[in-house]
Amino acid sequence: MKQTTNSILMIRPVAFRMNEQTAVNNYYQKVVDGLLPATVNAKAQQEFDAFVEKLTAVGVDVTVVDDTLNPDTPDSIFPNNWISFHENGDVALYPMFAENRRHERREDILDILEDKGFVINNIVDYTSAEEDGFFLEGTGSLLLDRANAKAYCALSPRADEELFIEFCEDFDYAPVIFEAFQTVDSERKLIYHTNVMMCLGETFAVICADCIDDKKERKMVLENLKENGKEIILITEAQMNNFAGNMLEVRGANDKRYLVMSAAAHQSLTPKQIEQLEKHAEILSSSLDTIEACGGGSARCMMAEIFLPKN
């Protein structure tokens, strides 16, 4: 199994704004005062287009699908939360915490991918869990070490343990379960998505280990990473708050590896961390300030990796 892919799905926003339904447990979202919704969306579109341009310039195959105005989907720019694609042709659909995010799931996106020659054999649908109030938000909640068949998950209101274990059984992953916290108004609160505190590359892992308050759990997570030969690059909570955990390794032309992150994440890294990371992949960063502030997500969240076989 490959850990990285050359193919990415991205959704271009049409009415991007701060989603009030996700703000209840996404402490990264900020109210941007004095900007009209149309201005926020225009800025997000500019950031999105510049980001896509940088990816395609290095040879990443990006499938861009435009969001629709109806229904109202302010977070559609983060497709990795509702769908994941797998090498055997499986597609997983995930139960979403915010009601207005459930409308992001679109069948026509699967048709677009099939038209591009991707093969979809089977859809594994977990979305009925929403009716019972259980959620698992795709590769936001799940960090997949595809090559070593391990899945890491920081439990939260958006990552249910039983659902996670069910996913691991269905897709043959060994579960690595823990809790991760961030300090919000001097209180420790659960981090909403695993992928803001951790990134898994082929030969390295970026992790804010300080977020795992339970020492045994922290040791267990780090040991799992070491077992699979990953170089561990530790980041601080301050760096995590600049989305330094929200990175994704992708492949460009000639299978060259790139580590994709936002400009804010890149700027937060120390020269030593940059040197460590550049041994594994070339850094590609793009400014996502508006998307990060209003959406509370960053570069990783915007890319749904496509591992499907091709005709």
UniProtKB/TrEMBL annotation:
<dbReference type="Pfam" id="PF19420">
    <property type="entry name" value="DDAH_eukar"/>
</dbReference>
<protein>
    <submittedName>
        <fullName>Arginine deiminase-related protein</fullName>
    </submittedName>
</protein>
<dbReference type="InterPro" id="IPR014541">
    <property type="entry name" value="Amdntrnsf_FN0238"/>
</dbReference>
